[in-house]
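can u pls check wat happens w/ adenosine-5'-diphosphate
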Amino acid sequence: MVALSTLPMIWIGANPEQIANSLAQLIVSVVDVEFAWVTMGEPAVNVLQAHKRADAQFAPRTPKSDWAKPNARFATEVQPQRKMYGVSVPIGREPGSVLVALCGRSEFPTELEHLLLRVAVNQAAVAVQQWRTEQSLRSEMERREALEAREREQRQREMQRELAHANRVATMGQLTASIAHEVKQPIAATVVGAMAAQRIVSAKPADLDQVRRVLDEIEKAGRRAGDVIDRIRALIKKEPLRKDQLEINGAIREVLELTRGKAATNDVSVQAKLADELPLVEGDRVELQQVMLNLIINAIEALSETSEGSRELLIGTAKTESGDVFVAVQDSGPGLSPVTLEHVFDAFYTTKPSGMGMGLSICRSIIEAHGGRLWASANVPNGATFQFTLPGLPYITS
Ligand code: ADP
């Protein structure tokens, strides 16, 4: 009894299998029985058995109906000519959870033995119950923690997108003047064309073929202005993140068109060496364009600081040996000092009087979210290069 009373302590944290094993062993050592067999839960669900000094043939040979009933007493033959007397004691209320004990004595179990068995079994039932409660508490806690982590991640992602969007709008703001020029030019062409058309139709006889040609020009100019506006709208609009299969060269060309004006006003000559047959990449077009926009504007701003030499900006794409897409933005500007090189991707690191220092840190997180890598290097003797790779989609080339 004393030994049995310490069981709850011993079984703290033990799982049903350990409890079943330990119960069987304890019964064999404390009660004078030759065989103890414990099962927890329905056999079909989870059979947990423990044998001690046992003939494993016991269970199949003895019909379950003999011993599975609560508190059934029965007699069985373990080996030929070896009669055994047994008792089954239910463990808790779960059907199929039972302790079976066998002994050679015909008076087994005595009242005291039966009491000991019941006490031990009740302790085991309590321990199993406790284990289950702890398990469900733990899994509830784990579920909650996972949910909280997911929510935290979601909030972080949203914040990052907000930030990326704000940065994009701010960057586009820097382009306003040059974009206004970009739009003004086709509009001016439209007005000139319309005036020309009016002149032609007023002439007698009117040259309708020429009118058609002028109208064609007017249409093209209108579309050009519309395209520029569409591109700006796409970059400024806050759209849900997309996962498209996209062709990076096309996305880069659009950004180059938007930045052409700013490059021209800053006397920067832009060269694009875009490789043919690049693999497609998977991701969000607007976000990747934001990266290009940031890198190009940074380069133009760096170049505008230089007073000597030509201001050159080179945009290149290539396919890497491992099938990734490689993009480089290289300028002939003042380059990156060792300190800047170390911190360029840190949030809020800026050397510009009105800089925010967010652009490159956002660029890096965008590229990393696309499974790629963005890094910087200082050119020799001067200038800076920003390069990134993006995983190329296998077998799909643009
Ligand atoms: P911001 O442009 O607001 O300063 P960024 O994160 O885009 O923020 O850039 C951080 C800093 O990195 C810049 O202030 C500048 O010192 C440096 N940098 C970025 N691009 C270049 C470049 N092409 N040449 C030289 N320095 C650069």
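Residues 294, 298-299, 302, 331, 333-334, 336, 340, 344, 349-352, 355-361, 384 surround adenosine-5'-diphosphate (CB under 6 Å).
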